[in-house]
């Protein structure tokens, strides 16, 4: 589920980041998408990356009670 979410965020933010070059914005946008598909056919967030993110999250929240986590929200 993280992969589609990350892709949606990137595809939403990327055009705004490319606004500095009005003439070539869509060319760069298309090039970035094509390169991503060619270089990362397995997706942006592979199972290995997802496991690393989950482990990092567990380290950050280890030892905290559910009440302490709820009070942070």
The strand count comes to: 0
Shape: elongated
Rg, alpha carbons = 18 Å
- The helix content, as a percent range, equals over 70%
Beta-strand portion reads under 5%
- Main pleated-sheet profile: none
Structural class: mainly alpha
The number of domains: 1
The CA-CA distance between the termini, in Å, is: 22 Å
Q: In sequence order, what are the helices and strands, one letter per element?
A: HHHH
Mean pLDDT level: 84
Helix tally equals 4
> Which spans of ≥5 residues are poorly predicted at pLDDT below 50?
none
Main features:
single chain; 4 helices; mainly alpha
Tell me what the structure shows.
With 73 residues, the chain is mostly helical. It has one domain (2-72). It has four helices and no strands. It is elongated and about 55 Å long. The relative contact order is 0.10.
Describe, in short, the structure shown.
The protein is built from four helices and no strands.
Secondary structure elements and pairings:
Elements: H1 2-17, H2 25-39, H3 47-61, H4 66-72
